[in-house]
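INFO  loader      accepted 1 record
INFO  loader      residues=93
INFO  predictor   begin
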Amino acid sequence: MLGENVAQTAQFIETGNAQVGLVGIAHTRNQNRQVKGRSWLVPADYYPLIEQAGIVTARGRDNPLAARYLAFLRSDAGRAILRNNGFALPPAP
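INFO  predictor   done
INFO  writer      dumping tokens
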């Protein structure tokens, strides 16, 4: 069984329709940040780095909320949320 996306794969695992699955760490926790079921954190040196970024599009460049959102992602609070959800971060600016 192959999920069409990570959310569907997580649903297959959670409902027991798949015995195992590979999903991001954020999909393994409940609302209280407790791990659901059993999990194994794949060591970072087992796979190539997946770089992700936040951008403001041309359409959003004049939207002050877009700039505030990026500023939040770069803030200590935003970085803590990302780190707590399994993202590795570059050094703080």
